[in-house]
Amino acid sequence: MGNTPARPSTSAEDYVKVIYDLQERGTGPVTISGMAERLSVSNSSVSGMLRKLNELGFVEHQRYGNVSLTETGTKAALAVLRRHRLLETYLVAELGYSWDEVHDEAEILEHVVSDKFVDRIASHLGDPVVDPHGDPIPTREGAIVERESVLLSEAEAGTTGVIVRVNDTDPELLRYLADIDIGIGMRVEVVERLPFAGSLQLSVRPEKGEEVREQALGLIAAEALWLSPEE
Predict the structure, then answer these.
(1) Of 92, 127, 146, which closes a domain?
(2) Looking at 146, 165, 194, which one is the last position of a domain?
(3) From the CB of residue 6, how many other CB atoms can be counted at a distance below 10 Å?
């Protein structure tokens, strides 16, 4: 057994996780201002932390350039995401939390639980591959089960598919989606794109046997949902 490398500091973990998340969500290159907005800190705070992460070998960042994770940084990010997403799954499955409550709770717990504890949760839950928001849960080895999906906001009119994932960073948005009864596992069709109105017109079939209904959805909400398209 080799020595396990020491776990990065809480703030280093938060930063690599955010960089990974911004890369993964694929809305363009990761920038200092994008990170500052996401972390609710100043641009200079982000620059200072990136210098430290650069020295630790977690990120590659030239001054004024885009930010990317090294292999070491990616491994660290996946380890935090594994803890975060398994904690969310456990809180929903075993403790009755709603999907809009778990993100903030997991943000705190992910830094303090041991890997042994997280592995116990994983095996207790039957090694799930996605969390309650449809986010992929990395394995212990840092592998991720990829599913083909497209952001709902970018889906063409006529696209039909199943909602497989939702961005969990905004509890108010999750509550709004719950209120209008849009959730994971629902089959939807993009009937019409209304970019100037900032919305999509969807046709939603919640469960087998239920009536199909029409639903207007703003583009901001549509940017938080992923669709697995059907042929």
Answers:
(1) 146
(2) 146
(3) 6
